[in-house]
Amino acid sequence: MKKNSKNYRQVAYICLMAMMLASPLYSGAQTVSNSPQTEHQYNDDIHTFIIKRLRQTCQQREKQMNKQIQQLLINLPNAEKLYDETFVRITTDVVEDTTEDGKHEINFVYNIAYTCHHFEGTEDDYPSAAYVWNSSNSCRAICNLTKQMIDNEMSDIFAPGKKTTITITSTTDAAEIAHIDYKGEYGDFRYMPAIFNDEHVRISVDKKDGITTNAQLAYVRAQSVKSYLSDQINSLKRTDNDYRFITRCFDMTGPHYRRSSLQIVVHGAFDAAAKNMEAALLNDEYVDFNIPSIEENINSKTYALIVADEEYTAPLPNCDFASNDGDVLHQYFVHTLGIPTRHVKVLHNAGRQQIYDEGIHWLKDVIKAQNGDVHIIVYYAGHGVSNAKFQPYLMPSGVDVSKIRAFKSKNGVLPSGITLKGNDMDKVLSQCISIDTLCGWFKKISALSYTFIIDASCNGIQRSGKEFFDMTRETKRYRAPRVREDFVIFMAADGDKTAYSFIDQHHGFFTYYILKELKYTRGEITFQDLFNNVTKNQAYESSLQNKLQEPSMIIGGTLGENWGQRTFINN
Questions:
Q1: In this structure, which long-range contacts are made by residues 556-561, counting pairs with CB atoms below 8 Å and at least 24 apart in sequence?
Q2: pLDDT digits 0-9 by tens, 236-248
Q3: Is pTM, for the whole model, over 0.70?
Q4: Which of left, alpha, beta for 349 (phi over 0: left; psi -120 to 50: alpha)?
């Protein structure tokens, strides 16, 4: 019997809000329990969730930026190339602090530095008496990459009027200095505050007397980096910047003791976001928080494979939030649907062969061992593509891009407007999994039911809405795959439509609304009601964000209307 969706949601929501006072953390996700909890504890849980979610946001950016800088460094001109054993890395964090007037703030911290595993060469570090930022290949890379990352990837964080604290660390080796000419490029300095060898000092440098100490040399190196940052990075021209300088002289000699690194703190970067998240949490808008639980292991005949492919080989972009999709769905499978933990396998960043060897083969063995008396669920979040006939494919992680000419990149990102054809197209598709192939793997193996959930965009557009790549087409019209077997396939969108990400929720739109229905109904919902509700709510929210997305279904030919009464909970 079909439930009244609106009334049912109201009742479920009231019950859920009553249970929100009993919600200990479970593996980073909030699950409902029956233990009493004070308002103070509940507020602490909200706070913990907010900080965790903000850190996830930073980690998402960090992954993408480091992936991009790797490609940028590869494509540097020969005169600026870094050694193979020199590694530049960005790290980011969310740090809580208190201002001088006692106000709580949530800050963004950006660090960039480099390491070198071998020291035979000297070209990557400052020459012995040099102080200009571009006299060091590594410092030049740090400065240029910081400009690209702040202006292009983090301009929203470095918003106009934000207060920043910029700490530049520069070092020298122990080589004695008699006199180094200082041309005065960065002005004269008189009793300027700095930290030298962990002590607060005052440093003076001027054109007339030049540089005569290692403290002065390290300080001028830091000033050179400051000059670049303030002159070249547009975002920093609009922020309120406080520069600080840490200098050091090591007691040994060698090029690897002559370096610069950089830390930038954006104060209150996430204050507004945290307030919005708190309001959303109180309105129960996050599916990652207060995940409902039913009787443990009640769904003992169900087995599930979750493939969450977020990270791809450069210059292919990552698939935003696919990892979080898989992790949170795992919690719902175990806690809300009552599937035994050992019956759920999660694969992160898996390639085609790994998906088959560790996932599909495992399911086949389970089906055989249980004589087909099982329900099978396969979930995939990641990139997708389609071939010349618009047939949809899953595009797993680990695609070998080295021999695909169209993927050659000079700036660390995939060139725009790519249309793969011929040999390039064949090489990509051979590493992907068509929907037909996925179904074919189970074609001759009987089970009680098969359900596939695909959150992937197959039309050449990424989840972010940015252009990905397309393929030459033999037809302009998309036709949904025809499946003869008793399979139910939930698709995030038709093969010629885009499956987007819901940025505020850190999920794909499709996955988020499936999880939301499972949360409100505690898993007690038919496939028909699930599809109808997801379609309605996803279309509404995605249209407001100018990302209209409507899911689709592929139903096995022999199922007829019976598919609609299926559920995920099978006692």
A1: 556/483, 556/484, 556/485, 556/486, 556/487, 556/488, 557/482, 557/483, 557/484, 557/485, 558/484, 558/485, 558/486, 559/486, 559/488
A2: 999 999 999 999 9
A3: yes
A4: left
